[in-house]
Amino acid sequence: MSALLGQPLIVDLAQWLSTPAGQYVQQWEQEKISSMVANVFGFHAVQIGLPAWDLLEANRIPYKGRSHSYSEAGVLHPAAALYADPENLPFDSQSIDLLILPHVLECSNSPHQVLREAERVLVPEGKVVISGFNPWSLWGLHERIPGLDPIMPVPAHMQVSLARLKDWFKLLSFELDRGNFGCYAPPCETERWLRRWSFMEAAGDRWWPICGSLYVVSAVKRVACLRLVGPEWKRKTKHVHGHTVVTGRHSGV
Fold first, then answer.
1. Which helix (H) or strand (E) holds 171?
2. Tell me: the pLDDT tens digits for 90-141?
3. Cα(141)–Cα(132) distance, rounded to whole angstroms?
4. The Methyltransferase type domain covers which part of the protein (predicted)?
5. Which of 14, 27, 67, 125 has the most CB atoms less than 10 A away?
6. Residue 168 · residue 221 · CB < 8 Å
């Protein structure tokens, strides 16, 4: 059985993306992820979760798919015909060139296992792209203040910080490739106030980049090359026997 949280959390996430705050998040993530995957090549690319949101549109890999997670069983979308458990992906080992996990780690009870599965199914030099909420942001602080209504669809204690994710990359065979923080506006639920705080985007990138409400990172699966070490075989040297030339007084030369 999938260890993901119950269906309401994922359903809330999909529905939340249609709110003003969700649209703000979705626009930023779409831009950053599209730039990360545009030049990734291979044969197979897969997005796990939130299939109504196409994060592979900028990629040119010929075989692309978007999958529901098991906890999204109540949310049907024609773009996804496959249900997949992120902790037990239904793909062969080393069969995927590009894997996108939008807010998947923070919606799982075992995010490290999700990352291990990503490592298993990716080909050597394959790429994984992960997005998540930053618990050390103004939005994350808002979630921790008692009495305030939550603004994010994922509880703060479930969110995976980028520092923690980097530690997991080191334990596995992933090498961090690119990363971005974004969405620096304070917690707002209306489009009007989000527009008023739009100047925070440039200021945040310059002065406090690690305090963005979201992060998007890509990592590459590195596989060390194996080299057989053993005794060096000695090549036998062939001796070429030539004619012996004898010279002397009576040789006629």
1. helix 162-171
2. 999 999 999 999 999 998 889 999 999 999 999 999 999 999 999 888 888 8
3. 15
4. 82-130
5. 67
6. no
Whole-model pTM? 0.79
What domains lie within the chain, and their CATH numbers?
7-221 (3.40.50.150)
The residues pairing with 218 across neighbouring beta strands, listed in sequence order, are 129, 178
Structure tokens at 19: 């709110």
For 66, other C-beta atoms within 10 Å of its C-beta total 22
CB atoms within 10 A of CB 183: 23
Distances (CA, A) of 154 to 43, 141, 239: 33, 13, 78
Task: Name which of 78, 21, 32, 89 is nearest 58 in CA terms.
Answer: 32
Which neighbouring-strand residues pair with 128? 99, 219
The answer for residues whose C-beta is within 8 angstroms of residue 197's C-beta and 6 or more apart is: 184, 185, 186, 188
Q: How far apart are CA 47 and CA 40, in angstroms?
A: 14
CA distance 172 to 222: 9
Residue 11: pLDDT band with limits 50, 70, 90? very low
Q: How many CA atoms lie within 13 A of 238 on its CB side?
A: 3
